Amino acid sequence: MTNSKINTSQKFITTESIPTKPPKSHWFEVWQQLKAHKGAIFGSYIFIFIVLGVLIGPIIWHADPTFLPQGRDFINLRDTRPIYTAIWDESAKINWGHPLGTDNLGRDNLARLMYGGRVSIAVGLTAMVLSIILGTLIGVVAGYFRTVDGLLMRLTDLFLALPLLPLILVASLLFREPLSNTFGTEGGIFVLIVTLIGITSWMQTARIVRGDILALKEREFILAARSVGTTPVQLIVRHLLPNVLSPIMVSATLGIATAIITESALSFLGFGFPPDFPTWGRLLNDSVDRMVLYPERVLWPGLMISLTVLCVNYLGDGLRDALDPRIRGR
After folding, report:
1. What single-letter DSSP state applies at residue 67?
2. Opening angle at CA 244, ends 242 and 250, nearest 5
């Protein structure tokens, strides 16, 4: 009788100790936390909508952003207002074939806004990739190899102390012609702006990665991997980099916003792409002289820049909270 009860109890304990569900993965928990961050979800939806708009929009809206009408067409098409201005101003010059109106040369504002978004977002993404690669490489090398740590960190401090915008303006003047002759006008300016933004925005990523590498390389699993003869390159690639992926992703999202703002500032100051090549910053620059008469020409590119940067920042905040184990459970 006693043995039967013991066996039944042991059977019950064994049955209860068997897990009924597989354990949740780390990335599933990150996704659950990210979904709970309303700002990140809202920002990601708006950012995806903007990206799809500038990519697919020109396929639907066939207007040429660089087309210049001639003769009577030029007189009829120049300086038309958006169609929504007819709600409060019946005397506004409107052309129903141009929903957002035209500029002082008769070019379609909607087409220029979409093509300008392509360039601005492409510059932001490419410059972000370059800065993340540079920052991660310098941060990993400085954190893992003590012999070059001091040199690389003083180099980082030097770049942080430099006035970056004047430096970018001077470099733009010096290298604009050689790169334009090599890659063409638009291609040369694209390479120049991406390179300048990339090599002047890697410092924060390098500092973050270096700090994480310094903490990780003294952990037990790194010491165990080193004791079995794992080479430094294998340690970095297999064990260290996967564990610093979270701050790199957050830094990447914030780097997109910084690159878009820098490109817009360069184009606004006249050091970016040529005047006939639209970007959001160039549209702002072209609209300043007529801002009082046609405020919508400043409003739309400024709104697109602000929305894109705000959405990317919200997404970066959500990723930071989702990837930080100290915040994830709140």
Report:
1. -
2. 115
The number of CA neighbours under 13 Å toward the Cβ of 5 is 2
φ, ψ of residue 214 in degrees (nearest 5): -60, -40
What does the block give as tokens for 89?
């101003």
- Cβ atoms of 266 and 249 within 8 Å: the answer is no
Query: Phi and psi dihedrals of 206, rounded to 5?
Result: -60, -40
| Distance (Å, whole) CA 129 – CA 252 | 7
Q: What is the rounded CA–CA span in Å between residue 238 and residue 222?
A: 10
**Burial zone of 288 (CB within 10 Å; 0-12 exposed, 13-18 middle, 19+ buried):** exposed
> Following CA atoms 195, 200, 203, 209 in sequence, which dihedral angle do they give, to the nearest 10 degrees?
-10
Q: Please give the pLDDT value at position 12.
A: 45
In whole angstroms, how far apart are CA 254 and each of 78, 259, 319? 39, 9, 11
Q: How far apart are CA 272 and CA 176, in angstroms?
A: 9
Is the torsion defined by CA of 54, 56, 60, 62 positive or negative? positive
Q: Which pLDDT score, from 0 to 100, does residue 6 have?
A: 45
Identify the helix (H) or strand (E) that includes residue 304: helix 296-323
First-last CA distance in the chain: 50
Which two tokens mark 256?
């997109």
Which tokens go with 325? 């184990």
Write out the two tokens for 269. 């100051």
- Helix boundaries (H) for 145-279: 149-161, 164-183, 185-198, 203-216, 220-227, 232-235, 241-243, 245-268
How far, in whole angstroms, is CA 172 from its chain's centroid?
A: 22
User: In which residue ranges of the chain is pLDDT below 70?
Assistant: 1-27, 324-330
Residues 323 and 28: beta-carbon distance below 8 Å:
no
Please say whether the beta carbons of 190 and 124 come within 8 A. no
Question: Taking a C-beta distance cutoff of 8 angstroms, is the pair 152, 138 a contact?
Answer: yes
> Are 328 and 29 contacting, i.e. CB atoms less than 8 angstroms apart?
yes
Asked if 232 contacts 144 with a C-beta cutoff of 8 angstroms, the reply is: yes
